[in-house]
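Protein in question filed below.

…
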Amino acid sequence: MRPTRVLAALSMSALAAAAPAIHDINNNGGGSQPQPSMPYTPPGGIGTNSTPPEYIPLSDFDFQSLNLALNQEWIELDLFHYGLARFSVEDFEAAGLNAEDRYLIQFMAEQEVGHATLISNILQGRGAKQCTYEYPFQTVREYVDFCQKLTRFGESGVYGFLEHLDSRAAATLLLDSITTEARQQMVFRQFEGLFPMPVWFETGITQSMAWTLLAPYLVECPAENPLIEWQNFPALNVTNNPDATPFVNNSVVGEDTTPGISRNRSQPLSYAGRTVNFTWESPGKSVSYNNSYVTSTSAGDPRFVAWISQLNTTYTPLENIQGNSGSTTQPGGMVFGPGSAPIVNGTMFVAITDSDPYVTPFNLSMMNSHIVAGPALYQSG
């Protein structure tokens, strides 16, 4: 792919000039040191004084988190272009996507140029360069489905680490890009004839969870790309995952799955009490570009399925375990109890664990050491 010349909103020279030799994470770019109050500003907050912000990583944690996000932006840029080039106008039209819809995908690719430029500049040119990729789709509907899933874990992967970055200034810029990706994910759901936003809250996942989901699609990368230090968990497969790709064009409300602003399905993709079947790989498999990474786990025997959705992580017992396979029952439950939103909905995450540790959105990484395999995406709605 030819590189695209862009005018960086945050230039490399400006970033380099702002970078001090030694970083104090309690400065205006991060940390939690009390700040003098500005007029009409209550005491408290971070980065509220007149010290110029530094839009740079302030720790190895920052660099590795941002570099993972950069790898995500690169694959999205390639994916959006690839689908437009692979499928014909007739293919897209048969799936209900017209010229304006195709241009929207093209514009989303242009957004990814901006996002990749932004993070590359924050990383001062030391971040990943674009790789080559492989994709699991054969039709336009499968392409759209893959796009909504890839943007789902890309978005959630950033939500999971954003509030943990030492560089609060860099986090601010990354927030500005990831909110755009949230819109992309919703658009692809609309293109697939799904309800556009079926949850009250979008969930976050850890860097290792996001890297586990992303890694299989990277085939070859430039030798200078930084090593990604996050863990690769063994892959998890939902063998009876609900399928949102069938195309129904009958204009019947509740059945029609053509692209639309909003679609309500009379037959939901999944439901509480549904039996869900899994298979998973053993650790020790070489994965990702140039087979540079090896899957691992520090967990014990598989005992539970973790359902990561919205503000909740819900566990159900793993049953019918036979080697590297098992099943469970899809849980019910509401986010805030009766009368609120179902916990399980949308494109969400499941993982096999050895126990059921209590975690919340801010400390989800405490689950990493308990993951036997996964996560996998579960198309619950």
Notes: Residues 17 and 362 are 33 Å apart (CA to CA).
